[in-house]
Write a structure and sequence with these properties.
Blueprint (H helix, E strand, L loop, with lengths): L1 H18 L11 H5 L2 E4 L4 H13 L10 E16 L5 E16 L5 E14 L4 H35 L1
Parallel strand pairs: 1-2
Antiparallel strand pairs: 2-3, 3-4
């Protein structure tokens, strides 16, 4: 009986959403295709490489298509010691990744959108050097992935509002 009631409740929610004009972000025509036609040019360095890889994955970059947009990225990284021990050694660090992007139309060469995202992650600093380096690299990867997700959502929202 509880299963039938939950199915009925889901059906009512679906009807309510359909009646209010709700449209999924990726349900707008052209948003997915426009996202996959963004070519990312990232700065050199580990963080730039990670950002480009995560953005190519997030935007589902199709290398067979001619890009409609080029995204130029500027990345800044900062690391702050947190959790200071009595002997003045940090046990945790806060890693801050800021990515400023400019989306340029390849057809006209004009700037289409400018944005900036900021991601903060923390990681433990171990006494063993290799473990500390591995933790820092993991924090860079997590921050780049989160920044790419934020940029993807900003671009999808912008494209959906521009297409409507």
């Amino acid at each position: 009986m509880a299963r039938i009631a939950s199915i009925g409740a889901l059906a009512l929610v679906a009807l309510a959403l359909a009646g209010c004009g709700f449209t999924p972000l990726y349900g707008r025509p052209g948003v997915g295709a426009a996202l996959s036609s963004v070519q990312v040019s990232a700065p050199t360095g580990r963080a730039g490489q990670l950002m480009r890889e995560h953005l190519d994955d997030a935007l589902s970059r199709d290398s067979n298509l001619k890009p409609q947009y080029r995204m130029d990225l500027q990345i800044s990284e900062q690391r702050y010691p947190r959790g200071i021990r009595v002997d003045n050694v940090a046990t945790r660090y806060e890693y801050v990744l800021t990515a400023a992007y400019t989306l340029v139309s390849t057809a006209s060469g004009k700037t289409a959108k400018v944005g900036r995202v900021r991601v903060e992650v923390t990681y433990d600093s171990a006494d063993q050097p290799y473990a500390s380096v591995a933790a820092q690299q993991d924090a860079q990867d997590r921050a780049a992935g989160e920044a790419a997700r934020k940029i993807e959502l900003e671009l999808a929202t912008w494209l959906a509002s521009a297409k409507s």
